[in-house]
Amino acid sequence: MIITPPVYLDYNATTPVAPEVAEAMAAALQECYGNPSSSYLLGQEAAKRVADARQSVASLIGANAENLIFTGCATEANNLALLGSAHASGHEKRHLVISAIEHPSVMAPARHLEAQGWTLTIVPVDETGRVSPEAIVDAVRPETVLVSVMLANNEVGTLQPIADIAKRLRGNGVLLHTDAAQAVGKVTVDVDALGVDLLTVAGHKFQASKGIGALYVRKGTPVQQILFGASHESGLRPGTENVPAIIGLGVAAELAAQRLAQKGSVLRDRRDQLHGLLSAAVPGLQLNGHLEKRLPNTLNVSFPRISGQVLLAAASDAVMASVGSACHAGESGPSGVLGAMGLNMERALGAVRLSVGWETHSNDIERAAYALANVWQRLDCSHF
Ligand SMILES: Cc1ncc(COP(=O)(O)O)c(C=O)c1O
Q: What is the pTM of this model?
């Protein structure tokens, strides 16, 4: 008997490492073990590979390589952006602005600063998960140091009007950070088109390994280190570079650039196929997030009269997905993001996040949709 594994529809939680990335990393682990700070050939080879990877990742986001800092993850990059720019700002200006649906790796350092006497303004989002650029600008005060608004939301995929926010903030001395952990590799990201000063990258969201991220820091942006040690990464992130993971990130960035250029509509096609099949089979299914201004791979839908958690548990032999952010898995109660969007309790509890990847096939989508619809029909009304 052939047992078919469940369809993986949780690419926003993490992605499989691309075979090309795994191969490059395995070779690096074996052969490229020199310390990039060492002056002999083995060290300098590692340094060269790190420099090449920096260039590849920088190219993917339209940045100069010298403005990219490798970090251990997106969480660290977000902490460096918020705490590093706060520490660099001196004592007079102590206000920051974030949106209501930021990832905990932005929300928690912002709350940490608040506990240290900073003032924090949390700007609400509308029912599609979008912040209004006007509301962001209205929240800014003379003592504002930083605005941090994510580029794409991890749960509903809504894309934020970052370029518009940047345009309105220009010239008033406020730094703009965007957490692009979910956007890089799925949509075109360009630091100049966005007009941001700081931008976060997460390797494992686009087929690099876990344990590697990056922070783009526009030239001249005042940021202080938050870890103390030697002078790696332009003095902003001490610690011997994770050479294999950095090399893997470089390969993943090149793959992402190719895919975005050559088969940009694949993610959207699969996602919309899934939406179409589910809508036809589940009357009353509701889309959460913005219909158009949304990551092409993300479908967050509320099933009527059922809890998303119960649905996914019952369908677990056919589909691997989650009801929201992987960071909150295991927590009961509706997602904070859906709450901030003003969804009622039944709709928030019925939500399921389905996120596709480059290797999701059309027949995977059919199988997943069939399983979810069948389980919903079987459980409808009986398990809320
Ligand atoms: C929007 C966003 N920011 C930051 C992170 C943090 O990434 P990591 O856990 O790899 O540090 C995630 C991960 O889910 C995310 O979705």
A: 0.96
